[in-house]
Amino acid sequence: MIESPLPTLPAWVKALADAEIPVLPHTVAELRQLREIEDARGTVDASMLADALSADPLMTLKVLVHVSRYCTRLSVEPPESLTGAIVMLGITPFFNTFNEPPTVIDWLNTAPDAISGLLKVVTRARRSAHFAMSFALRRQDEDAAIVHQAALLHDFAEMLLWCHAPKLAQEMAQRLQTDHTLRSAAVQKVVLGMPLSAVAHELMRVWQLPDMLIKCTDDRRAQDPQVRSVMLGVRIARHTQHGWDSPHAQAALHDDVSDVAKLLTLSHEVAERLLKAIDS
Known about the structure:
- By secondary structure, the protein is an all-alpha fold.
- The chain has helices at about 10-15, 25-40, 45-55, 55-75, 80-90, 90-95, 105, 110-140, 145-155, 155-165, 165-180, 185-190, 195-205, 210-215, 225-240, 245-265, 270-280.
- Helices cover about 70% and strands about 0% of the residues.
- The longest helix is centred in the middle third of the chain and has 27 residues, at about 110-140.
């Protein structure tokens, strides 16, 4: 475990690039069940696997990183989606590669507060992905599934921090809980010495993840509609994680709703109703 802030961005990247990525317990149960079906009837395909695993951002990341490294060795472009990554590996090699991965419960068995903190980030990531995909579908974006995946993975560095530096992650969470007016990036700079977005972007480059995924998680490309969909999904999920009527949400949501209205060419009132309907 990382107990104190590392001095530089390369040090953070080196520490996390080859670190284990534990997965959610439900994912391991799904893998066991699907492997039994495959062994008995040979009827499991990539779409079935992706559908079963796509709610777990950690497993999604684990598969994409593995396959991107595999593609790098072959000098081919990595697939953009979880389904494509599974197709690239093949069903039997997939099960052999990801047989009984460690779970976050086992990985953090001495840090129950870290498990709770990690699961909150996972829940927020799922909501981010749901919002982002809804925006993409309304825009009739052919890459809506990639937008969903990008939003799901947007905060993967924070998840890895809970897994490998839980004390630092807990300190950040406590600061944000104490003062809801603080911005996450500012707290990250104080506690870690740099924003997690910088760590995430460099890790994706080192892992050579698909260009589309890197683009959709790059906040600097905010004017791109796909990136905008991801950013707004992430923002709204974060601002409403304590409820739509919390003081923090009320202070931030007006601008969020205005940006969604602009993205989808809606009135402010219709956009506000839409967001609550998506989250219902």
